[in-house]
């Protein structure tokens, strides 16, 4: 720990979570808008699911709705061009992880507050100060605005297909291998480590593992439980000032699958598969993780997502290349193909 340096940590001021949390939208927007226009970033589907209702709450306040796709550098560039003549005073991201990442990055660049309004508990970027942005080659974890407020309406989120909730739970459960990687990087590479961030991250994972039986379709209580741990995971990232506590080798595998453009797995599902292999490579209890994913109904079989075995093997072999500066159990050179195949076979991913 360096005591002669200032470290900045940013946390949300207001968190509204629960049934009808959307009713707090107006008051939160008014509190955070000092001047200018409210920029609402949403997607075509998520506008219908919640964006329109959020906009209705802003009646009388100047606002502009921007429709966006995946979170990429190109999408950020065109969004900035679209809003070039608008004096934005507040950004609200309404949607899944991609819309929230777009919103928090644009708010950061414009130096205005950001409100996170998730339509599903499908990822733990809901409350984090980092954005995962694709730059045409890789997925960068870049600095972004920590949401100044989070409005998580569990009634709206509970209407998302159950798959979204199971994926979000998996994204948090996988923190367990991310922390194992971080501890290893601290031991081997001397990487800066925060015990507080690691403990919170592990806690959020353990809570969901221990209560996996209660994560079921059709239960708003499950959405509550997952969202609470998503908030905890975001807090760990805020303390660390990076996604390190929640993104290790399991995420590198997920990002490699994205790069190879294979299959239809959601982010959290890709991460679940990755965490089994990471846990196996660490010599940990991967069977416990396997049973947990089974309980919550997440398949960890690549074939179920249309991912061919050979692509999964390649993804694992090259995953370390995605973030060379982030040392993990995958090491610094391509994983031998046979090692990759065995690890994926043994854990049932292929
Ligand atoms: N910054 C961080 O710390 C983190 C960032 N992420 C990022 O988040 C993204 C993954 O997020 P994820 O939410 O899985 O995927 P997306 O945001 O890509 O959304 C996937 C699809 O689901 C739709 N959708 C969203 N909500 C609902 C709903 N309630 N009902 C039906 N459909 C819905 C979206 O609609 P529409 O077309 O309207 O958007 C979109 O078509 C990745 O880009 C990942 O990198 C993940 C974890 C952490
Ligand atoms: O997905 C994340 C945490 O769940 C963070 O993503 P990165 O791997 O892009 O940092
Ligand atoms: Zn993730």
UniProtKB/TrEMBL annotation:
Reaction catalysed by this chain? sn-glycerol 1-phosphate + NAD(+) = dihydroxyacetone phosphate + NADH + H(+); sn-glycerol 1-phosphate + NADP(+) = dihydroxyacetone phosphate + NADPH + H(+)
For the ligand (glycerol), the binding residues are 124, 171, 251, 267
Binding positions for substrate per the UniProt entry: 124, 171, 255
Q: How is the cofactor bound?
A: Binds 1 zinc ion per subunit.
Q: Which residues form a coiled coil?
A: none
Does the keyword field hold DNA-binding?
no
SUPFAM superfamilies, from UniProt? Answer: Dehydroquinate synthase-like (SSF56796)
Q: What does this protein do?
A: Catalyzes the NAD(P)H-dependent reduction of dihydroxyacetonephosphate (DHAP or glycerone phosphate) to glycerol 1-phosphate (G1P). The G1P thus generated is used as the glycerophosphate backbone of phospholipids in the cellular membranes of Archaea.
Which protein is depicted?
A: Glycerol-1-phosphate dehydrogenase [NAD(P)+]
Organism field: Ferroplasma acidiphilum
Q: Which gene encodes it?
A: egsA
